[in-house]
Amino acid sequence: MEIVLLCGSLRKQSYNRKLLNTIKEHAPSHWTFTEIAIDRIPFYNADVEERRVPDEVTVLKEGLTRADGVIIVSPEYNNGMPAVVKNALDWAASPPQESPLPKKPIALAGASPQGAGTVQAQTQLRQTLIAIDAYVMSGPKLLVGQVHTRVEVEDEQITEEGTVKRIKKYVKAFDEWITTLSE
């Protein structure tokens, strides 16, 4: 099963990168991963799209087209999703008749030092993805609050037992979600 990963944090040692690494570590063995970098995608502009779709956008759309499912791991900035994530989704959704996102199984995850995790960012992401007609997994939600207490600075993954247990439940549910939608 081909899973595309999008990370909404651009920082190399971000908590969301560590969450993404932990998801990969505990995913089913039949999953393969392609992470698509979204940091170099230019801001969406219909004039640019009309002239020539940027190569970074072509890579994004081709990867999403091949994917059996997509996991978006994103922080929350000022009570919302990062601009880089929204921008990638705007490009992927345009033009609508060629978008790879409708009916695509998508799962959301995020980590934050705040207590509520990334609940508001995930709410915005969910609204955007529903408008695009993607199939967003309703649960279990993966909101890792107070993440700084769940990982050592030098670790590449989250190791706190309770969080790892939730991650395992999350990847199992997403695997079942994709399988159900493909039947």
Write up what this structure looks like.
This protein is of the alpha/beta class. It contains six helices and six strands; from the N terminus they run βαβααβαβαββα. Strands 1, 2, 3, 4, 5 and 6 form a six-stranded parallel β-sheet that branches. It is globular and about 50 Å long. This is NAD(P)H-dependent oxidoreductase. Pfam families: FMN_red (PF03358). It comes from Shouchella miscanthi. InterPro entries: Flavoprotein-like_sf, FMN_Rdtase-like_dom, NAD(P)H-dep_reductase. Belongs to the azoreductase type 2 family.
Question: Could you give the topology of this structure?
Answer:
Layout: E1 2-7, H1 15-25, E2 32-35, H2 46-51, H3 55-66, E3 69-73, H4 83-92, E4 105-111, H5 119-131, E5 135-136, E6 142-144, H6 161-182
Parallel strand pairs: 1-2, 1-3, 3-4, 4-5, 4-6
